Amino acid sequence: MSPLRVAIVTTFYPPCNFGGDGIYIRNFVQSLARRGCEVEVIYDADAWKVGVSALHPPPSPEQVPQPDGVTVHQLESRWPLGSTLLTQQAGRPVVQHKAIEAILAKGFDVIHFHNISLVGGPAVLALGEAIKLCTVHDHWLVCPNHILWRHDRELCVGRECFKCSLTFRRPPQAWRHTSLLEDNLAHLDALIALSQSVADRHREFGLKKDMLPMASFMPNADAQASSTALGSSHDRPYFLFVGRLQSFKGVQDAISCFDDDSPADLLIAGSGEFEPELRALAAGCKSVKFLGKIEQDKLRALYRDAVALIAPSLCYEVFPMVALEAFREGTPVIARNLGPYPQIVEESAGGILFDDEDGLRDAMTKLASDPALRDRLGASGRAALAERWTETKAIDDWLELVRSIAVKKGKEDTKRKIDALFAIESAS
């Protein structure tokens, strides 16, 4: 029997990606390949090139080795800015329509769309003939600026999209005032949200199509805790922040909780456009240390030895991998009571939520002064990761979803392929 053939359509794909969505998609692609699927990825290198400068071309697919079962199609044009702007304005793959259509015509059982904003906009959902899924990795379907962070200063509580787009220096999109989005969402068999918060926010902002919550996961190869022989080499207790340094990530609120008399340090792993402002805020404070980007092996040791991971984001996250990375090392999280974090903390019993700066201070004091509590919460997080957020469970759930759609649509060949994948997994 031929393998289950899956097409992945997305704007960014490593190494041409800026955030966690690309890493998630790569993990998902490689996990499908490990289960025996044949996966082809279509992504738009023009969008990445525009983001980093047209003078820095992406590496060719031949320069980025892929695992067995994975083929990557890198879309490029002679005019990256023009191609990207046309897609952004029209909500259609104006330049790359024929290229995407030709690849999808090769015969797939499943087409799974991810970040579609600049690979083709809503109209890309109409291309291809297969079972169609779409996972949202931000709030772009209801927010032109992706993050429901109005005017780059506050949570969005009401649409001011024209002004807000100008604040983010992005051209307003006329297609959002048409039925283009709803018309093309109708081509999907399932629209997937990685947390209940994402589904709730989309409904709150007027999306009519139902969303199916489906949890994120940690790849099997990454799920084991790091060796106890490794050490962080930091000589004082510390709390850890990991992520891009942007204003809406809320790191400034964490910095405000530290001074020269703090019994623990704040280590900040990451870089970004807001870093100069954060460094200015922390100027002269010996307990706040900026580490820049950290290699994964060293980052794992930093997670493991931290009192807790601090997740102070001011905007609605989707499902941050940093929480699972902390749980993998037996480290609890202290997270703002916003977005997916209430769900993550409730399901894991692996952290503490806070609402304001006083709440953050209290949570840090509680964990720093009670190592037994810290270890108990960390152990709960690690146990939840092993039960709820594994690669095996995520791919099983995905295959079950596709199988149920195949049965409903009478696609017997797709159903048989999935049954065979389950049989192989069971035998192994």
From TrEMBL:
> Which InterPro entries does this chain map to?
Glyco_trans_1, Glyco_trans_4-like_N, Glycosyltransferase_grp1
Domain Glycosyltransferase subfamily 4-like N-terminal residue range list: 19-209
Superkingdom of the source?
Bacteria
Q: Which residues form the Glycosyl transferase family domain?
A: 228-382
Kindly give the Pfam families that the UniProt entry links to this protein.
Glyco_transf_4, Glycos_transf_1
| Name of the protein this chain belongs to | Glycosyltransferase family 4 protein
Please tell me the species this chain comes from: Sphingomonas daechungensis
